[in-house]
Specification:
Jelly Rolls, single chain, seven-stranded antiparallel sheet, disordered N terminus
Length: about 230
């Protein structure tokens, strides 16, 4: 208890909980008054988030962020609901959304927390002590920074229509340039004014293949046809 109090006094925020769960029933959770920021990533399934009086539906590959001070409840709509989450608390927790430019109360498609960071935090919490608490806080900062970078990159937060237009444009550019040996995904993203990582996520979700693999397939087919 003493070590917990000591570290809590010196950390601007800390990881409260982290986990991965597959919910197989449609029983709603209890309503909770939160004093923490929460990131909930839906891997598969469908869920209704009740945030105060606001209703937000999340589907596969959606990230939802809620602010400290919210009344939160979850109601699975399609099961199994496979999801991961992390909650963060501390003296500066109320300032986190503004600090990292995180939109709260929205289903953010194609944006997900880095799994390697989540796994590292989970591992540190299995042997919890003051040193590991500092490490998890640093990793949480890194996690939020990465989410913020992807959220605020050019092309983030596109509507379905905008996504369809983006995919069509990317396919057209690939068809036009794949014969150029110097053409790659970085150049494609640059020409489209979109973050490379975000382009990867949107392309894979809508075509089932990465843009780099698609470019290679086009080159291979051309070579075979010669």
């Amino acid at each position: 208890m003493l070590s917990y109090l000591k570290s809590s006094l010196t950390l601007p925020f800390e990881v409260r909980t982290i986990g991965h769960q597959i919910t197989e029933d449609m029983v709603p959770s209890s309503v909770r008054e939160t004093e923490w920021v929460g990131l909930i990533w839906t891997i598969s399934g469908k869920v209704l988030h009740l945030l105060d009086r606001k209703k937000v539906v999340s589907v596969s590959n959606d990230l939802l962020i809620h602010a400290a001070g919210s009344r939160v409840q979850y109601k699975p709509l399609e099961i199994p609901w496979d999801h991961r989450w992390i909650t963060i608390r501390g003296p500066l927790v109320s300032k986190l959304p503004a600090l990292f430019k995180l939109p709260v109360g929205k289903a953010l498609n194609g944006i997900r927390p880095r799994l390697d960071i989540l796994s590292e935090i989970e591992g540190l919490r299995e042997n919890f002590n003051i040193e590991n608490e500092y490490k998890t806080s640093l990793l949480a900062y890194k996690l939020l920074l990465d989410v913020s970078k992807n959220l605020n990159a050019p092309g983030a937060g596109l509507s379905d229509t905008e996504t369809s237009t983006l995919i069509k444009r990317s396919l057209k550019l690939i068809d036009k340039n794949f014969s150029d040996a110097s053409f790659d995904v970085s150049r494609l993203a640059s020409e489209m004014n979109i973050h490379r990582g975000h382009l990867y996520r949107i392309f894979i979700k809508n075509t089932g293949i990465s843009p780099s693999d698609y470019i290679q397939q086009k080159r291979l087919r051309k070579a075979i046809s010669l």
